[in-house]
Amino acid sequence: MPETVRERLCRSEGIPDGGVRVFPVGRFGVGIFRRGERFTALSNRCPHAGARVCEGWITGTVELAAGEQGKQTMVWARDGEILRCPWHGWEFEIESGRTLTDPSRRIKRYDVHVEEGWLYVEL
After folding, report:
1. Most buried among 24, 28, 90, 123, using CB within 10 Å?
2. What distances in angstroms separate CA 85 from CA 27, 48, 49, 67, one per listed residue?
């Protein structure tokens, strides 16, 4: 089994709430996403065509919801929870790395830790 490498990246305040910062570590780089005090680390490689996915858009998505008289309607949902690939628009859950259309396809996710104000990622 390969050895885990632990990289110190930056101070936690170096990533704004709702933002991402990409670091040149690992094979493709790693994007660290922040929502409040929660940090998520994803590989900067789209599983579809190899794009630098973490340089895409942090956004929401359109979902079906129950509307008036039982009819379905489209609503904007999950704002700030979705990463959209800059090449082909594939949408991924930031928290899990899974695509919205095919949950078997995902971006590689890494463990990220905050210790004494510093962010560390395990590769």
Report:
1. 90
2. 18, 9, 10, 30
